[in-house]
Design brief:
- The complex is a heterodimer.
- Chain A is built from two helices and 18 strands.
- Chain A is mainly β.
- Chain A folds into two domains: 13-195, no CATH class; 214-252, no CATH class.
- Chain A has a five-stranded mixed sheet, with no helix packed on it. A four-stranded mixed sheet of chain A has the order 10-2-3-17, with no helix packed on it.
- In chain A, β2 (23-30) and β3 (36-42) form a beta hairpin.
- The longest helix of chain A is centred in the C-terminal third of the chain and has 12 residues, at 214-225.
- The relative contact order of chain A is 0.16.
- By secondary structure, chain B is mainly β.
- Chain B has one domain (2-201).
- Chain B has one helix at 192-201, and strands spanning 2-5, 22-28, 33-37, 46-49, 52-55, 58-64, 66-68, 71-74, 77-80, 95-106, 113-118, 126-131, 141-145, 153-157, 161-171, 182-188, 206-207.
- In chain B, the strands form three sheets. In chain B, strands 1, 4, 5, 6, 10, 13, 15 and 16 form an eight-stranded mixed sheet that branches.
- In chain B, a hairpin with a 4-residue loop joins β2 and β3 (33-37).
- Chain B is globular.
- The chains are: A mainly beta, B mainly beta.
- At the A-B interface, β1, β8 and β12 of A face β11, β12, β13, α1 and β17 of B.
Chain lengths: 254, 210
């Protein structure tokens, strides 16, 4: 194949994702007693075998995938939001198997967990022109439908973007569900995104921007609830060893 | 004939909605490669008939509005090998779409058609993957492998006018025989308004630098 570079002056294309810059999550189903169950899958495209889903998390080469989002929206309703096209939600890949027959599928933004940075709204939009976005799903939506991005059946929408309100690190949890009610809701799948270059201050467990004794109480609460803030030594687990790590982080300051 | 605006202006608008482009996919009957269209839920108006990509039963015409450095570009058909991969119909294949023909229909003087990718890696432009003038079959071919759906595909032509661009799908592994040719009708149309908008619209997103 030829590999020739042709310049296009003034293009906005640099802000969009290429085949290597994005990945797909699609719906499938598995037979279960009664209604079949919706399943969220990744890594099925030939070029995306490094992606997978295990224990409810999106992985890349077996480790938690972190989707880095650097671009910001300069103006309009989502000014300041971080945006990308890296996560593509679809219902096409398994449609031809017949396993999705009769469904009308949606990806609900079921939860947004703050790991660093302030609490953040996450929206899914379509681009309808340069800088013009049409809201499709909102993590703060009042209903499941309002929080959901509809992919229908056999759908593969190219112009979808996800926008993150603030700089930070967030775990976005999705649930796939069928508006037609022919398939049970999927298990949750969590995708980690990193918007911008947030300063991570692990000892600031309560996220108030300061390292104070109050963070100890917050860490204890995180430990008891097995919240992500509990993991102070970065081993991906919440264990008593994180207490020592929190003390070290506290003494180190931020 | 039905016409479609493949790209309104460059940039994020070029990541066109489902209505602005369609998909072609590889399938097989166990022996032969097939090019199919119209299988997406939102694309049931599309089809292939008489060797042409059609929309609502008529020959579809894709418009290429973007222009730079002698090339008219736009999104036309998105070439993929994903849709039927899960059925097992494509097992063992390694598929390509070869540009086998470029024929003027109405006043065209173009001599070359290309298929490529938008460049998203810091540069402005696109990468040519396949050219109608390529010396080898691989040079004329856009690779989609098995189970792939590359985004950001660009079709380009080096002149105005209406042309028939013909593709043949083939399997580099030799498991499946070549497809029948399928022709896309493209219309390279200068769009001064679009060029002006490029300078005025500003970036939909900007790279944050620290």
């Amino acid at each position: 194949m030829l590999r020739t570079q042709i310049a296009i002056a003034g293009s906005l294309l640099a802000a969009t994702a290429s085949a290597q810059d994005h990945f797909h999550m699609t719906v499938d189903s598995i037979p279960t007693p009664g209604l079949s169950k919706t399943v969220i899958r990744a890594g099925y495209l030939g070029s995306e075998s490094a992606f997978s889903i295990a224990d409810g998390r999106l992985l890349f080469n077996g480790e938690i995938a972190v989707i880095q989002i650097d671009d910001q929206i300069p103006s309009g309703a989502y000014a300041g939001y971080y945006g990308s096209q890296q996560i593509v939600l679809t219902s096409d890949f398994y449609f031809s198997t017949g396993r999705l027959a009769g469904g009308n599928f949606n990806f609900e933004i079921a939860n947004v967990e703050r790991l660093a940075g302030p609490d953040s709204r996450v929206v899914w939009v379509h681009t309808t022109g340069p800088g013009v976005f049409s809201l499709q799903a909102d993590s703060e939506g009042a209903t499941q439908a309002a929080r959901s991005y509809n992919v229908g059946i056999g759908g593969h929408q190219h112009a979808q973007l996800h926008l993150i309100e603030n700089e930070g690190i967030y775990d976005i949890t999705f649930v796939a569900w069928d508006t037609n009610g022919l398939y049970l809701q999927s298990e949750a799948v969590t995708v980690r995104v990193r918007a911008g270059e947030p300063v991570v201050c692990l000892a600031d467990t309560n996220g108030d921007g300061a390292v104070t004794p109050a963070d100890f109480s917050a860490w204890v609460a995180a430990f008891n609830s097995q919240a992500p803030e509990c993991d102070q030594n970065g081993d991906g687990m919440c264990s008593p060893a994180d207490f020592s790590a929190w003390v070290a982080n506290y003494n180190a300051g931020c | 004939m039905r016409t479609f605006t493949a790209i309104i202006v460059a940039g994020l608008a070029a990541s066109a909605a489902a209505q602005d482009h369609n998909h072609l996919a590889i399938n097989t009957d166990g022996t032969n490669t097939l090019i199919e269209a119209g299988y997406y839920a939102s694309e049931t108006d599309w089809g292939i008939a008489g060797g042409y990509v059609t929309y609502q039963g008529e020959i579809a015409e894709y418009h290429l509005h973007d222009y730079h450095d002698g090339w008219y570009t736009g999104l036309t058909a998105n070439l993929g090998s994903d849709f039927f991969a899960a059925t097992g119909n494509l097992d063992g294949g390694d598929f390509y779409y070869e540009i086998v023909g470029l024929a003027p229909v109405d006043g065209g003087s173009a001599t070359e058609a290309i298929w490529g990718f938008e460049d998203h890696h810091g540069g402005d432009g696109f990468d040519i993957e396949a050219s109608s003038l390529g010396a080898t079959r691989l040079d004329r071919s856009f690779g989609v492998g098995v189970g792939n759906h590359p985004h950001g595909q660009v079709t380009g032509i080096n002149g105005t006018g209406i042309y028939d661009l013909t593709l043949v799908a083939w399997d580099a592994n030799g498991v499946y025989a070549d497809s029948a040719p399928v022709t896309l009708r493209i219309n390279a149309i200068p769009a001064p308004a679009s060029a002006a908008l490029l300078g005025l619209a500003g970036f939909a997103t900007v790279r944050r630098r620290r």
